[in-house]
Amino acid sequence: MHALPHLAVLDWLSLTVFFACWAGYAWYSEHSQWGASGLIRTTQHYRLKWAYRMLERDVRVTDSTLIGNLVTSVSFYANTTIYIIAGLVAALGASDKLVSFTADLPFGNTGNRELLEIKLMLVLASFVYAYFKFTWSLRQFNLLSILVGAAPFGKPGEAGIDTYAQRVASANNLAGDDFNRGIRAYYFGLAASGWLLNTAALGLLSIVVLIVLFRRDYRSPALQILRD
């Protein structure tokens, strides 16, 4: 808290833009009616179709393999995030050297040690958030594999099949949504790292990340394929 008085007005404005872009886009893509046509919620319909197809199959090796691939992807990001967090903690311990290093950069504006530490803490918090989301997503994918293992055999309309398909799809959606939140934290963590060089870069990169995320979730060829 003792570092907060070192923040200038431009720092507070950039921070406001940063959190507004992150929280605003999360609400827009996950909860608003305008974001229902995006990539995140479009894939939820396919997860439900997957659940129905899985229940119709007597042998579910394919489904187990697909879930294994999802778990591998999430595990990769979780492991990578640990190394990033370790590097940022080490950087906090060498903040004096970082102040001297960034002072020689063309656009360096880290200020004193206290200001640099709060900037590093913002980046660190972003990746810690990502780590918690990836590990929780990993646990939910493990729960999904249990649901697949315990799934009955049947077709839509039969007793209990629709309810179980909804349960499997919901577990898949929860795991996938947390994975998406972790990826989003990566993007905004990169935007937060711009604050280390220049105050205005934080707000500018936050807007750039917002545009990139919007284009990929609502204007990408991948979404068009799913809609078609």
Could you characterize the architecture of this molecule?
The protein is mainly α. It has one domain. Helices cover about 80% and strands about 0% of the residues. The chain has eight helices and no strands. α2 runs antiparallel to α6. The longest helix has about 35 residues. It is elongated, with a radius of gyration of 21 Å.
Compact summary:
With 228 residues, this protein is mainly α. It has 8 helices and no strands. The protein is elongated.
Tell me the overall shape.
elongated
Unreliable parts: none
Main beta sheet:
none
Percentage beta strand: under 5%
Estimate nothing, just give the exact number of structural domains. Answer: 1
Count of helical stretches: 8
Termini separation comes to 52 Å
Q: What structural class do you assign from the helix and strand content?
A: mainly alpha
Helix-strand string: HHHHHHHH
Mean pLDDT: 89
* Helix coverage percent: over 70%
List the helices and strands and how they pair.
Elements: H1 9-30, H2 39-56, H3 61-93, H4 95-103, H5 113-149, H6 161-193, H7 199-218, H8 221-227
Helix pairs in contact: 1-7, 2-6, 3-5, 5-6, 6-7
Write out key terms for the chains shown.
single chain, 228 residues, mainly alpha, 0% strand
